[in-house]
UniProtKB/TrEMBL annotation:
This is Nitroreductase. Keywords: Iron, Iron-sulfur, Metal-binding, Oxidoreductase. Belongs to the nitroreductase family. InterPro entries: 4Fe4S_Fe-S-bd, 4Fe4S_Fe_S_CS, Nitroreductase, Nitroreductase-like.
Length: 263
């Protein structure tokens, strides 16, 4: 299989593939057709922008043809106002209905996150979805224990012992984003994935809340790490409680004004 094929019958020599390639792996040849540089194969990050952007569908890369890609659907574009409303109405949800979220919906949401950006397109995020109540409870208990031991807000641990769960909020699901610690930028990649997941979940009528206390405990508490049993050298970089919100929010709370410098 050729690394890349340019169909010269379709290529209109517009140079778009050259301008959009992250590592400039093409240049214009003497005849105007794009030429692949010799180091392209080793430097390509598999982003497939060349296949996606070519208006005439002239490029096939590593066996991926234009017809192998899902088409962009113009009618699905959402309005600026709808995006603004979606972002402004997302709230951290801390009270959930007991209604479970189906695996089908969770699967769909997590699969959408395959298209979130990642450093060098490394797509390093793996997911652990915890739905079993007894495991969520164990995680809450171990996090509380760790908070007491490390004196991080011990009052939250005390409340937990008295049946008030400020750690995982009795959420029916805990979704964890983990990645190899030696990756290019696992913190950013997992943070983006969880952030987009929370926003997408809101659009699906679900609600999420970052599980910050758990995240701090997850990579430090041996028993908790054993329970999660992540692949070797993986760490937790993001975690979201997820479920159907028990209450509706009727107003958008004010936020600080954006602090912007223009140069
Ligand atoms: C990294 C991170 C960790 C967080 N951890 C927690 C947490 O452990 N518990 C919690 O109730 N909220 C947590 N939150 C939610 C914030 O408190 C919340 O985003 C903030 O108060 C603003 O509210 P809003 O998300 O509804 O706009 C966390 C948020 C982030 C971004």
């Amino acid at each position: 299989m050729d690394f890349i094929k340019i169909d010269t019958k379709l290529c209109n020599k517009d140079g778009i593939c050259i301008e959009t390639c992250p590592f400039l792996l093409f240049k214009k040849g003497d005849d105007g057709f794009p030429v692949i540089l010799e180091y392209a194969e080793t430097h390509c990050i598999d982003c497939r922008h060349c296949v996606s952007v070519c208006p005439t569908g002239a490029i096939t890369i590593k066996g991926i043809r234009p017809e192998d890609c899902e088409p962009v659907c113009k009618t699905q574009a959402i309005s600026e106002d709808a995006v603004e409303h979606l972002i402004k109405t997302r709230r951290s949800i801390r009270a959930y209905k007991s209604k479970p979220v189906s695996q089908e919906i969770l699967n769909r949401l997590i699969n959408i996150m395959r298209w979130t950006p990642s450093a060098r397109n490394s797509q390093p995020v793996s997911w652990l979805v915890i739905q079993k109540k007894d495991i969520i409870n164990k995680i809450g208990t171990m996090t509380a224990q760790w908070m007491r031991e490390t004196e991080l807000l011990p009052q939250i641990a005390d409340a937990y012992d008295q049946g008030v769960d400020m750690i995982l909020r009795n959420a029916p699901n805990l979704v964890i984003a983990h990645a190899h610690a030696e990756g290019f930028n696992p913190t950013a990649d997992c943070t983006i994935a969880i952030t987009d997941l929370e926003l997408a979940a809101h659009a699906f009528g679900l609600g999420g809340c970052w599980a910050g206390f758990f995240m701090r405990a997850a990579n430090s508490h041996k028993q908790l790490a054993d329970l999660l049993d992540l692949p070797q050298d993986h760490k937790v970089y993001g975690a979201l409680m997820l479920g159907y919100p028990k209450f509706k929010y009727h107003r958008i709370p004010p936020r600080k004004p954006a602090e912007i410098r223009w140069l």
